[in-house]
Amino acid sequence: MQDLPPFFPLLWKVRSFHLVTHGRGLIFEATPTAYDMSSSGILKSSLAKKYAMALTGLFLCSFLVGHLLGNLQLFIPGEEGRIAFNEYALFMTTFPVVKILSYLTYASVLFHVVDGIALTLQNRKARPVRYAVEKGSANSGWSSRNMGILGTLILVFLVTHMQNFWWKMHFSEMPMHEINGEQLKDLYTVVLDYFNPAINSFAAVAVAVYVAGMAAMGFHLWHGFASGFQSMGVRHETYTRWIEAAGKAFALIVPLAFASIPLYLYMTQA
Ligand code: HEM
């Protein structure tokens, strides 16, 4: 027993090892056995956590698409944009199905954060069986190695963002906008004023925070999007390549489009 290599105990805990191609490198992948799944609580909870991270992360990606489409109305100038955005904001805060989706979003953010912290801490402790052992660093990019830090930066952005608009919309006094005799909360003006240097002396800082937040989100999604599909067991010779390409396109387009809103509002009002 003494002469056996240090990884020998792994052989008892996995059904098979196989080399698979991944990106530009090869990974040595361990398939857990039923025995392993039931006996190793750590592995089991680690896989469950990865699955939950993936599920909540991909749900939040769909939220981002909806949120971005709604926010694009901020590009419509003047009274037309004000009416469109404020009617949209009213719909988003009152329509029952959307309200349920909102609660699901809050729960997903919370779960994704708590699960992410737990997974990061758990990964730091010694793991008896590694799910995938990388050969070299060829396939572990900067983003994948810094998901925790990037997630923390996004969380900081999100807390300030919720305080800027969401808190105001739901819990504090708002300017009003009369549309067809009805008084609506004027969220359009609140957002425009926030990025207007003539009204907010910290508008440039606000824009910088949004652009930095979107940079962190881009890097987080660069690895996270495709990794989410992988954690949920979606692996296919052809489709995985397409999912990775879609993930990279998503990681570029969505944060760039979000960042363009405060930049546009700042520049057009400066
Ligand atoms: C230019 C970028 C953005 C602008 C102008 C913007 C604007 C807004 C506004 C006005 C609200 C309040 C809506 C309401 O409560 O009815 C809101 C809510 C929210 N935003 Fe953003 N947002 C931006 C980017 C983001 C990003 C990148 C994220 C995620 C990382 C995000 C996450 C949220 C969440 C979770 C809410 C609460 C949604 C809800 O209550 O259902 N936002 N945003």
Could you say which small molecules are bound to this protein? protoporphyrin IX containing FE
Tell me the distance between the termini: 74 Å
Helix content: 55-70%
Task: Kindly identify the CATH topology.
Answer: 3 helical TM bundles of succinate and fumarate reductases
Q: Mean pLDDT across all residues, rounded?
A: 84
The total domain count is 1
As residue ranges, the low-confidence spans are 1-39, 129-136
Q: How large is the share of residues in beta strands?
A: 5-15%
CATH architectural grouping: Up-down Bundle
Q: Could you explain how this protein is built, in words?
A:
With 270 residues, the chain is mainly alpha-helical. It has a single domain, classed as 3 helical TM bundles of succinate and fumarate reductases (Up-down Bundle), CATH 1.20.1300. It is 69% helix and 10% strand. It has ten helices and five strands. The protein has a three-stranded antiparallel beta sheet. A two-stranded antiparallel sheet has the order 4-5. A hairpin with a 2-residue loop joins strand 4 and strand 5. Helix 3 packs across helix 5, helix 3 packs across helix 9 and helix 7 packs across helix 9. 19% of the residues are buried. The N terminus is likely disordered. Protoporphyrin IX containing FE binds next to helix 3, helix 4, helix 5, helix 7 and helix 8. The site of protoporphyrin IX containing FE (HEM) has 20 residues, from helix 3, helix 4, helix 5, helix 7 and helix 8.
